[in-house]
């Protein structure tokens, strides 16, 4: 029986030597896009692999379409389209041969859709996979992931090797997927501007822990960049801001409550809209001095 | 059951496509080798033993391709279970063995000057002996190949060599006492099999042996699945 979210992750834990994913929780509702952001080594890829059942979890629960990937991995993966940040298919085979191997594993495979995407992505099907550029490898992986009517598309840094024009086209393609509100997308990326364009929810992960998982509009509404003089910092508690950068003549800081900051500091500071890039920069970095 | 067969067929087809070039090369070398072999060896049993060892190793080695190409993490994101992936390896290995054995029988029948009788290679006893040797090697090598890739094959073969070396040293030190013990154990095993065959009727004995071989393959497969499931990708 399906639960309220197409994907529900609760208190997820995974231990590696030197790294631990701890108590990761978030919910992705059906028909929405969630961006998973965070610095390198934060635990984004590990989280995605746990959702796919490719690694074993040490604690917590995952429900994808109401199923547990650890117990019903094949059934879960048949409904997921996955793109790895470094796509690996059989180098010695052509794209057509690779696609034929993959197609047989999906009962919902749509060959017409695959051919349409291959043409749209300008992929030459008689080329060997090993001869493709990184960008074209990603395009091929995307074409496969979007050709079996996946209900959940999981993308691990898919846009990192792509040129800006194709990146924009891809984001449009992903948005089109959500037209009938049947599919959902979980999108891990460093390029936060992509998420500002298409994401509905943002989950920030750092050092294996969730910093927040909220609706994007709520984040952009509540979080703000604050600029002011250094003397103003003296009257504030040390943890008033989520991140702080001191310069020679003033400070720039991030607040997670723009209204409260405005109420407390009034017009003595400048409060600007924060981008997701600002949020990642200030929440994952420590207080710094210029 | 139909779904299981469908998945195994997909896995077998996948491996045949993946290894097509290697398989053509192996088939050519194997055919040339066997063409010479059948004209040079007159003992069917000796031929059978050497050929089965050769076949089993030939089929196991190419199956480590996913380790070499780094495609295992990707395979684990597809809608197949780990057990499906492992079973595909066993199905492919046995399909290749059957294919190679068929080629060898054909060569024994048609190569001019062949000293072997093709019909004798198809006798139930010979087929069981062949299946026994292949089972022993495949059941031993595949779990390590599946867990560690080609390195697993090498490690197993090196371990067997080391074990053999240690045995020789021990035999030397004990003045042949242990060697005699091993020889008498093998002799006793052979005697036991012969007694069992005489006690049971031949067809019952053959069926029991076949069941034992199936059981060993199944145990090896379960061990491989257990080893493979422990891996994180």
* Average predicted confidence as pLDDT of chain B: 82
State Rg of chain B.
Answer: 20 Å
Summarize model confidence as the mean pLDDT of chain A.
87
Largest beta-sheet characterization of chain B: none
Tell me the series of helices and strands of chain A, N- to C-terminal.
EEEHEHEHHHEHEHEEHEEEHEHE
CATH superfamily of the largest domain in chain A: P-loop containing nucleotide triphosphate hydrolases
Strand order of the largest sheet of chain A: 5-6-7-3-8-9
- The total strand number of chain A stands at 14
CA gyration radius of chain A, whole angstroms: 21 Å
Quickly count the helices of chain B.
11
Low-pLDDT residue spans of chain B? none
> Runs of chain A with pLDDT <50, length 5+?
286-290
Number of individual domains of chain A: 2
Euclidean distance between termini CA atoms of chain B: 29 Å
Distance between the termini of chain A: 54 Å
Overall structural class of chain A, as computed from helix and strand content, comes to alpha/beta
Please describe the structure with a list of short key phrases separated by commas or semicolons.
heterodimer; A: 290 residues; alpha/beta; 2 domains; 6-stranded mixed β-sheet; 5-stranded mixed β-sheet; elongated; B: 233 residues
């Amino acid at each position: 029986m399906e639960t309220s979210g197409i994907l529900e992750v609760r208190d997820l834990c995974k231990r590696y030597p030197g790294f631990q994913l701890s108590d990761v929780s978030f919910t992705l509702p059906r028909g929405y896009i969630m961006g998973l952001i965070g610095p390198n080594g934060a635990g984004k890829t590990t989280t995605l692999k746990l959702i796919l059942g490719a690694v074993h979890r040490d604690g917590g629960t995952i429900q994808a379409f109401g199923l547990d990937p650890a117990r019903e991995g094949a059934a879960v993966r048949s409904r997921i389209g996955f793109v790895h940040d470094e796509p690996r298919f059989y180098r010695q085979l052509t794209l057509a041969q690779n696609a034929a191997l993959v197609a047989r594993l999906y009962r919902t495979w749509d060959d017409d859709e695959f051919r349409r995407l291959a043409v749209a992505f300008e992929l030459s099907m008689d080329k060997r996979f090993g001869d493709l550029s990184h960008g074209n490898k990603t395009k091929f992986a995307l074409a496969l992931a979007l050709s079996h009517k996946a209900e959940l598309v999981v993308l691990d840094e898919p846009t990192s090797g792509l040129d800006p024009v194709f990146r924009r086209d891809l984001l449009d393609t992903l948005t089109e997927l959500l037209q009938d509100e049947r599919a959902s997308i979980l999108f891990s990326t460093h390029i936060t501007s992509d998420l500002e364009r298409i994401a509905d929810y943002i989950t920030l992960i750092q050092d294996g822990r969730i910093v927040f998982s909220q609706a994007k509009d709520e984040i952009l509404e509540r979080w703000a960049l604050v600029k002011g003089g250094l003397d103003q910092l003296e009257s504030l508690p040390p943890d008033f801001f989520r991140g702080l950068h001191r310069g020679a003549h003033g400070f720039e800081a991030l607040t997670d409550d723009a209204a409260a900051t405005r109420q407390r500091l009034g017009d003595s500071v400048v409060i600007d809209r924060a981008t997701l890039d600002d949020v990642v920069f200030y929440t994952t970095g420590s207080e710094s001095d210029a | 059951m139909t779904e299981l067969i469908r998945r195994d067929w997909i896995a077998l087809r996948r491996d045949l496509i993946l290894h097509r070039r290697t398989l053509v090369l192996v088939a050519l070398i194997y055919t040339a080798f066997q063409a010479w072999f059948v004209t040079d060896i007159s003992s069917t049993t000796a031929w059978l033993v050497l050929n089965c060892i050769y076949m089993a190793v030939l089929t196991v080695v190419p199956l480590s391709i996913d380790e070499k190409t780094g495609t295992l993490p990707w395979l684990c994101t597809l809608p197949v279970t780990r057990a499906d992936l492992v079973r595909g390896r066993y199905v492919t290995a046995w399909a290749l063995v059957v294919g190679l054995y068929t080629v060898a029988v054909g060569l024994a029948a048609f190569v001019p000057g062949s000293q072997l009788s093709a019909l004798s290679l198809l006798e139930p006893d010979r087929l069981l002996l062949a299946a026994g040797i292949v089972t022993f090697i495949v059941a031993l090598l595949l779990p390590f190949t599946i867990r560690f890739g080609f390195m697993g094959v090498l490690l197993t073969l090196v371990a067997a060599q080391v074990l053999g070396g240690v045995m020789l040293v021990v035999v030397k030190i004990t003045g042949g006492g242990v060697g005699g013990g091993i020889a008498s154990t093998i002799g006793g095993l052979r005697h036991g099999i012969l007694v069992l065959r005489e006690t049971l009727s031949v067809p019952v004995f053959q069926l029991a042996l076949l069941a034992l071989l199936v059981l060993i393959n199944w145990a090896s497969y379960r061990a491989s699945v257990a080893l493979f499931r422990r891996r994180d990708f």
